[in-house]
Design a protein that fits this description.
By secondary structure, the protein is an alpha+beta fold. Strands 6, 7, 8, 9, 11, 12, 14, 15, 19 and 20 form a ten-stranded antiparallel β-sheet that branches. The radius of gyration is 27 Å and the shape is globular. The protein starts with a strand and ends with a strand. The chain binds (2R,3S,4R,5S)-2-(hydroxymethyl)piperidine-3,4,5-triol (DGJ). (2R,3S,4R,5S)-2-(hydroxymethyl)piperidine-3,4,5-triol binds near residues 337, 526 and 548.
């Protein structure tokens, strides 16, 4: 039983064989937090885990109990203002304008499985035996509001899902000004905070800093999760490494404005909380209405960061991502964006796709430019075919692509509009903009008001008409600017605080409509590359374009950083031309492929521009990926060497039964006459021997304890992937090697 209730002490213990999470009802009826960490044996009474002492200059909420103050009591979902002065998890304003709430325990429910979060992405189970859910019901006696805290503990993963729901069961209108998904108080502050920050073209770089007394926080106020800050945070112990020690992961299953913060108080208690960013957020709760927060997936490991990532990968890949493509190997794709931009004819596209078919590509993706009168400044929002480019419509092109033996995919940016478009001319009220204020542009475009269901339906209808009859297998859903001057013409003034969240709900609803119309469609989410790389998106699109930066050297870093919080199967990664269009850098073709193999693999170029030798190399790459993609996409991924910190980056994937593995080594700048190089591997069977690229045999124990050497494979090429006479050592800048290990 993963949830046990100890009625006498009003304590609740959620656990599996790796993790325990314990909460209790406090003397004043609020919920208290007792423990979150390595699994504890279940017992009648966990009161010994309560930190308690009389402290001077505190206030207390119960007259009869002056020793009880929320100021130093660990809590589950705290409120500000009733003796706790730290950051609260929520704020409810009743009609009298007061700021105080006091939710007291009234009961609980326990059920097998995991309930859905209607309208929101969430983790799920396929069988009720996979998880158990505890719902704690609390009530505010003055307003009649009911708060439900929901906890699901998974049976076979060190993972707990949390969310909260407010229901107005009173008679007055309530204003919700803050409604985070979760909050947890740890008894100490010996933590390092790890965030994944960046900017366009250099997304999700790990940044680590020790927690100190006060606030540590990241947020997005861009209307999307953003490449600047990712809604995934790790708290780890200072001594934790990739292979050992405690780490806690927090993944927000949401794609809009968010806040993640840790507050260390003067008694070294750490409060971690996460959810919808309270800035510019408010939600009107009419009597009878309810508000459900997005979900946070809390993961735990005591075997280091690789252990934590392993759990997160399994959870997101198999119990957040859904649908037809979840467990299927992803098609090798070819995208025309870097080849043509928006300028092309149907024949150009067919010529590019034909070359793709020749090398073994399986899916052709037509990127931006096929609709309206599309230029850099116009056409967005007009989802009808530009007949000057595609005289036979989307269907005509899709048929020609299909005739080459390829599946057909297409790009859309449904949330956007150019001022120079028929849509904007007909429906200027469909954009988000503040009355009497100017509208800021981003990429020359405005943002449609997806908080308005009418707009979502309008776009859906247009898309369906444009796609009519076409055999579409894949959609790349782009989103290329942040929201500014956020205001919806469709909502009254008192509901303007709801627009950002309603917008994201609108995005999710369009995904649901498209999925319902095309259940076997593969979605790739994209927002200028990595601006919407979050767990929420994975519920709809199992892969996301990692970054617009396709330079292999930078991609090693970006994919390495992404690996902390997201599974390989979610990283859209393509081989592009050299010199690289973003950075001007040249890297070997085998390095570009060697990096892109670790992800949802494809090409982003006109393959006709390659030499005959390069085409032969590409054919081998495609064949290699097709042969090994199940191992790569569904194997266990390990980070081995950090390319942010060293000139050599390395990672590997291992099959679940440890019978095979693939290792990638990636050099940045190479030292002249450098030292000996060994890369210690992970996850192999120490009792087994492995052949390296079908040649030299070495023990799993040796490979893990001493390490793999580049020259171990000198005579035995995977080197089918490499040009002839490749030296055994990594010998030039941005050189790389792949090793295929097979247990004997
Ligand atoms: C940004 C995307 O990240 C690119 O891959 C490409 O689809 C362009 N948008 C098209 O406008």
């Amino acid at each position: 039983m993963p949830v046990s209730v100890h009625e006498r002490n009003k304590q609740f213990h959620l656990y599996n064989d790796r993790v325990s999470y314990i909460l209790e009802v406090l003397p004043n009826g609020n919920m208290g937090q007792l423990y979150y960490g390595r699994r504890l044996r279940d017992r009648e009474d966990f009161s010994a885990l309560r930190e308690f002492t009389n402290r001077p200059i505190t206030s207390w909420p119960m007259k009869e109990l002056p020793s009880f103050s929320l100021e130093f009591t660990r809590q589950e979902y705290p409120a500000f203002g009733t003796t706790d002065f730290r950051q609260g998890a929520y704020e409810v304003i009743p009609e009298d304008g007061s700021h105080i709430s006091d939710f007291k325990y009234v009961g609980h429910r326990i059920g097998a499985g995991k309930p859905d979060l209607p309208g929101l992405p969430h983790a799920y189970v396929e069988d009720d035996s996979e998880a158990e859910t505890l719902e704690i019901l609390l009530r505010d006696g003055v307003t009649g509001a009911v708060l439900t805290l929901t906890y699901t503990v998974f049976a076979h993963m060190a993972a707990i899902a949390r969310s909260a729901e407010f229901k107005n069961e009173g008679r007055q209108v309530l204003q919700l000004n803050r409604a985070l998904s979760m909050s947890v108080d740890f008894p100490d502050s010996r933590f390092e905070w790890m965030q994944f920050s960046g900017a366009w073209g250099r997304e999700r770089a790990p940044k680590v800093r020790p927690l100190q007394q006060g606030l540590t926080a990241i947020e997005s106020m861009r209307g999307h999760s953003s490449s600047q800050q990712n809604p995934f945070v790790i708290l780890k112990r200072p001594e934790t490494t990739e292979y050992s020690g405690e780490a806690y992961g927090f993944s927000l299953v949401y794609s809009g404005n968010f806040l993640a913060q840790a507050e260390v108080d003067v008694y070294d208690v750490t409060r971690f909380s996460m959810g919808i960013n309270p800035r510019n957020f408010s939600w009107r709760l009419e009597p009878g209405a309810s508000f459900r927060t997005p979900e946070v997936l809390m993961t735990y490991a005591d075997d280091g960061l690789n252990g934590l990532s392993g759990t997160i990968h399994t959870l997101l890949r198999s119990r957040v991502a859904r649908g037809y493509w979840r467990d299927r190997p992803r098609p090798v794709l070819l995208n025309n964006w870097e080849a043509t931009g928006m300028e092309f004819t149907e024949d150009d596209i067919v010529r590019i796709a034909r070359k793709g078919a020749e090398v073994g590509v399986e899916l052709f993706v037509l990127d931006d430019g096929w609709f309206g009168h599309r230029t850099e400044y116009s056409g967005l929002g007009d989802w009808f075919v530009d007949r000057s480019k595609l005289p036979n419509g989307v269907k005509g092109l899709a048929d020609r692509i299909n005739a080459l033996g390829l599946k057909f995919g297409i790009w859309i940016e449904p949330e956007m509009v150019n001022e120079d478009s028929e849509l904007f001319r007909t429906h200027p009220e469909y954009v988000l903009c503040t009355p009497d204020r100017s509208k800021s542009l981003g990429r020359n475009q405005l943002v449609l008001d997806f908080s308005n269901p009418e707009v979502v339906d309008y776009i859906y209808d247009m898309l369906m008409k444009a796609f009519d009859g076409a055999n579409i297998s894949y959609i790349k859903w782009d989103m290329n600017r942040s929201i500014t001057e956020c205001y919806s013409a469709a909502l009254p003034p008192e509901k303007q605080g709801e627009v950002y969240h309603r917008y994201i709900l609108g995005v999710y609803s369009l995904y649901e409509k498209l999925i319902a119309a095309y259940p076997e469609l593969l979605f790739e989410s994209c927002a200028s590359g990595g601006c919407r790389f979050d767990a929420g998106m994975l519920y709809y699109a199992p892969q996301a374009w990692c970054s617009d930066d396709t330079d292999a050297g930078e991609r090693v870093r970006i994919q390495y950083g992404s690996s902390y919080g997201y599974p390989i199967s979610s990283w859209g990664s393509h081989v592009s031309v050299c010199p690289n269009q973003q950075l001007g850098r040249s890297t070997p073709l085998y390095t570009r492929a060697g990096v892109a193999f670790f992800g949802a693999f494809g090409y982003e170029m006109d393959l006709n521009s390659l030499s005959d030798e390069e085409i032969e190399e590409v054919k081998k790459q495609v064949a290699f990926m097709k042969e090994r993609r199940e191992l790569i996409q569904f194997g266990r991924f390990y980070r081995l060497r950090d390319p942010y910190k060293e000139e050599l980056g390395a990672w590997m994937v291992v099959a679940p039964d440890r019978s095979e593995a693939i290792v990638g080594l990636y050099q940045r700048t190479v030292p002249l006459n450098g030292g000996f190089l060994q890369v210690k591997l992970q996850g192999l069977d120490p009792e087994k021997d492995y052949s390296i690229n079908g040649g030299l045999v070495r023990g799993g124990d040796e490979l893990m304890a001493y390490g793999l050497r580049p020259r171990d494979a000198a005579d035995h090429p995977l080197t089918a992937l490499y040009p002839e006479n490749i030296p055994q050592e990594l010998s030039r800048d941005f050189d790389s090697r792949l090793y295929y290990l097979s247990a004997l």
